[in-house]
Amino acid sequence: MPDFCASLWPEEPTPEKLINCDECGLDKHRTRMVWGEGNPEAPIMILLDNPGAREDREHQPFVCGTRQTLQQAVHEVGLIADDLYVTYILKRKPTKAYEKEKTRQICMNHLKQQLQLHKPQFIVCLGNIAVQSFFQNPELDVKSLRGNFHDVNGYQTTVAYHPLAVRRRPNLWSLFLQDWKLVADQFYNMTKAGNP
Known about the structure:
6 helices, 36% helix
């Protein structure tokens, strides 16, 4: 692999009125809310299930495996951090059992606010939870949808495996790269069309 060093992308501040949001119950898990990271005005929005960890137990920032794998892939297809904004179905990392479907439905309201505000040109759902939540269909999965763009409520949307799945099953790496190449090609074609 070419020389590459993952970094912690800047975090978008959570709106002041939502920092202590307790509507879904995840505030009881004692994890902080992470609204998003990267460039909020980016044309490509990446959707994950939850923010995972941005700090270790001593509250020191670190780049987790999910972020390392994601950043390596986008680097290899020629995208840069400024092209991307990452957000999540759940804005807090769950640490114990919770009512999954109910919680995801409640938290989708935050995502709808982000979509209206940021208006991304493309959305990339990573992993089955992001796919099922965003497509609003519990029967769908990455395997059946990857390799194409789909219109979801007016958003050009594609899907790929979750970076954590790719780390656990290295045979998925080539498929992960294929899916990111699809995103990069679509993005560059749009950029060329907009700049004759």
